[in-house]
Structure formats: structure tokens, C-alpha cells
Amino acid sequence: MIMAGNDRFLSKFTLMNKSLKLCLAVSLLVAATTSIHAQIRISQVVGFNFANMDLSTGGSEIEAKGTTGINFGMLFPLQFSDNFALHPGVLFTSLGSSYKTDTIDISISPIYIEIPFNAVLNIGSGVIGIVFSAGTYFSVGVGGNKIISGGEAKDILYGSGDTKDLKHFDFGLNFGAGLNIKGFLISAQYGYGLANLSPETSDVTEMKNRVVGISLTSSFSGR
After folding, report:
1. pLDDT by residue (tens digit) across 37-80?
2. What is the secondary structure of 206-218 as a DSSP string?
3. Cβ-contact 189, 179 below 8 angstroms
4. Which of 63, 81, 111, 141 has the fewest Cβ atoms nearer than 10 Å?
5. Model-level pTM?
């Protein structure tokens, strides 16, 4: 039993390590291939997620309840003017949902490494500005747990097939708005998942992430 637990830990650690390296490599590649006139800075992000899932099976919707998670990480702002920038980044984010199928209660809380890529417009001058953003994201599941009918929390199994819980990869769209005050951005963002996360080989069941994030970003470049 101890050996099996160690193997699961090592497997999860290896996957997370590879995911982090991939996220950093993609973000650095984006920065390197952007115009040399862009000003590259690093911003820190921390906040909360109010997440849920759109669930359906056989064309019928399943009522789901939301959950609260966290998000934190780094952005690499590419500033092209006082009012316009691109924001690639690497974030750690926890999502989830709870729902009921037949007589079974399920709570699932996946953890992702996410690569957002947003275009950011800052309207205003001086110390205060209104900020709007839009873009896309790609993420990979690296952990989390599930609870079935009040039982023990178990690790989420990522992959495809009836023995798995969620597919590994997610992608979607981001929309946000916020207030930039002296280099600190307080913002709200909506993430609209496009990928069907259901691990079933048939397309009868659909599971898609929906999340509202509230975050504080420091060293915001659009000031």
C-alpha cells in the first residue's frame, strides 16, 4: 500500500513538473517572438474562483452547484503602448462542481496549470484606469480530488475511458474588466470552457468548465 501511494505521488509530481516546464516554455516562446519594442515585465496574480460546470447527458441538463477555489501565478505583460498590452502567463487554478446522478452525489475539484493569453485595453491616464481584457486559455489537469456520496476524498483520474474522471486538457475563452489603481489591478474575469471534459468515449455526456475569477494583479504594466 505504501509503495502504491509513493508511486501515485511520484506520478503526480512528474506530471506537474512537466506541465510547469511546458507552461514556462510556451510563455517564454511568446515573449521571445514578440516585437523587440515591447516592454516585458512580470506581474504577480492572486485571487479566488467561483467555479461550476455545464453538465448534460443524453441531451438533458444536469443541475450542478458551484464551488470556490483559488488562482495564483505570474503574467508576462508585453506593453505596446500606454493603453494596449498582451498578457501571456502561467497560473495555478482550482475549479470544480457538485452534482447528482440518479442517487449518487458527486463533488469534483480539479486543479489545473493554465496558460492564459489575453489582450488588455487600459482606458485612462494618471493613477486610475478602467481595464478590459479578452483572450483565450489552455490548461492541463495536474491534481484534485473527488468525493462520491459523502465518502473519502480520492484523487481525480485524468484520461479517457469509463474508469477516468476527466480528460487532461481544457481550453476556452476569457473576458474580463477591472480597475487599475497605481499599478494594482483589481479585476473580474469570466472563463468559458469549450472543451468537453467528459472522459467517456461516446459524446453522450458533456462537462464544460465555467468560472468567474476575482483577482489582484501587482506591478500591472498598463499604468
Report:
1. 445 578 999 999 999 999 998 878 888 999 999 999 999 999 88
2. EEEEEEEEEEEEE
3. no
4. 63
5. 0.78
Q: Are 177 and 132 in contact (CB under 8 A)?
A: yes
Measured over the CA atoms of residue 93, residue 210, residue 54 and residue 27, the dihedral's sign is negative
Single out the residue of 45, 134, 47 nearest to residue 84, CA to CA: 134
- The length of the chain is 223
Tens digits of per-residue pLDDT, 62-73? 889 999 999 999
Choose among 92, 113, 111: nearest CA to 19: 113
Closest CA to 62 of 52, 71, 76: 52
Write the CATH number of the domain with boundaries 2-218: 2.40.160
Element (H, E) at 142: strand 128-148
Residues 6+ apart with CB under 8 A from 41: 76, 77, 79, 219, 221
